[in-house]
Design a protein that fits this description.
Blueprint (H helix, E strand, L loop, with lengths): L1 H23 L9 E5 L2 E5 L4 E8 L6 E7 L19 E3 L9 E3 L8 E9 L3 E3 L4 E6 L1 E5 L3 E3 L4 E7 L9 E5 L2 E8 L3 E4 L8 E7 L9 E6 L6 E5 L4 E2 L4 E6 L8 E6 L5 E4 L2 E4 L8 E9 L2 E9 L1 E12 L11 E10 L4 E6 L7 E2 L2 E4 L9 E7 L4 E3 L3 E2 L7 H42 L14 H14 L7
Parallel strand pairs: 2-9, 11-17, 19-26
Antiparallel strand pairs: 1-3, 3-6, 4-7, 5-6, 7-8, 7-9, 10-12, 12-15, 13-14, 13-16, 16-17, 18-20, 20-23, 21-22, 21-24, 24-25, 26-27, 27-30, 28-29, 28-31, 31-32, 31-33
Length: 476
Amino acid sequence: MMMMMMMMSIRMASLPLIFLLIVQGVYSADDESDVNYSPSSICALKGSTVIINCTYKYPTGHPINNTFWTKINSSDPPDLSEDSEYRQRIQYLGDKHHDCTMRLTDVRQTDSHKYYFRFTTDKNKWLGVPGVTLNITDLQVNSSGKEVTEGKSVNLTCKSRCRLTDRSTFIWFKNTQLLSERTDRNNQLILKSVTREDTGNYSCAVQGHKLISPHQYLNVVYAPNKPVISIKPSGEILEGDSVNLTCSSESNPPVQKYSWFKGNKTSYLGSGSTYIISKIRSDHSGKYLCRSRNELGPRYSEVTLNVLYPPKEVTASIGGSGEILEGDSVNLTCSSESNPPVQNYSWFKVNETSHVGSGQSYTIINFNSSHSEWFYCEAQNEVGSQRSAAVSVNVKVVSRVSFSATLGIGFCVGVCGASAFLIVGMFICRRKSLRRKDSEQTPEKDDDASNDTYTALELKNRSSDLYDTLTPKQRC
């Protein structure tokens, strides 16, 4: 009796322990039951299909009545295939012998959970603890710098909240376009020496999966491009026009300030993308510089303005100096400033409509008093024309004929007078010489006026002799 009571006590004590083991799903070797999950923890991409590999064993001689998966660790857990959230997505791939593999499609963030395999025999019910852990993750693009200066490098990394179990190959997209050459197993996209064309939205994915990460914007900053200057009006610029110079330049960040200079970088004119010149003048011609600047630096560009204007400061002048003598050539010259240069010069007499000559210089050959007049010139280019003030060529002219006569008479008087004086002097000298000679060759005679008298013929002959015989050595 005592022995029987002790045995009943042992049996009663063992019942709670057996119940506890069944409820918690803990299996001992004696039970000959076991559930294995491979792997015990899974990280899967949202939207992907997950296969949980599972094997089990059960006591020999006890056929399997029922198998299913659950996410509740209890004595009577629900079957997931009957849950509305899982009904269309879960599929049991195992059998009622040893395979308990399960497939879950289109996994969601809410599917992150621990899952258990449940089976029953004709004898007992088992729950495969500790179960398998499923983590659902999305993808994120991390950048070593969301803003990078042109010419530098940047790394983009495709990350998940948990470590993916498969050996994944990552693919990259820029502005939703696949970068086929950027496939990499190390989940990094390395951009070396970036250019402004690398600016855009980047996203990543695992090859073979439809999940694409949210995009990450990469901002490549750079100094302004060389500015472009436009001129309005775009054609010829005429003096008096209103001219607008507009400067534009691409940069990131945008240009902070435009500045204008004339001639060089120190001759500051003003700021703003547009510089306006009202009623432009000829002295506005020249080189203009635009400077565009952002926080990364400045860039310059230049343009040249060519202001066209009709001839101005037209002047007619007379060449040479002093009096114009009748018979001389008179040269008139016309000078002018204009842009483009003067194409035609025309010469006019005052009060006459038709021109008397053309060309920058006008020459009057064999000038005489009938040419005395007021003259002016007209300079013309493709823009317009202008006349000079008139100049007088009515110069007091000395007649060349009367001047020659006067000069001839004076010359004649001087030469003839000198000749007569010379002849008379030589004649007297000759006469004295003859007298001395006669007094030496003839006897003395009384003074007689007839002895000193010569006939006109003799005087003429003696004068002729004097011219013939007089030499420079003879002196009175």
